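Example record

One chain of 120 residues, shown exactly as stored in the release files.
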Amino acid sequence: MAARRSRTWRSFAARPRGATSSRSSSASRTTRANKAAGIIINAGAYTHTSVAIRDAVAAVAVPVVEVHISNIFAREDFRRHSHIAPVAKASLCGFGVGGYTLAIDGLAALIGARRKSSKP
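Predicted structure tokens for this chain:
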């Protein structure tokens, strides 16, 4: 799916919340060092509980797209709140694993629009 775009994509998977938030909070340094242009994140259950991940996402200067395999709004009440959505550029849920393809396409569009708007 990422091959459809003329970009290099890197993935990072972490189970412990600390690894996810530290990886996200270092995204500003990653942007300069590796030219990362955006982040796609599925924080799983931490979406509903982690202010640390929310703060890390809010701190980065690149667009962030939040992805959930299931529709969090069709689940239990406590799963309907996302700490990440208010600070993410976009959120997707309920598309199954196909949501990642949509997130890649959406992030690529956001990056393209951002680059166009920054040109003189």
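Notes: Residues 28-33 have pLDDT under 50 and may be disordered.
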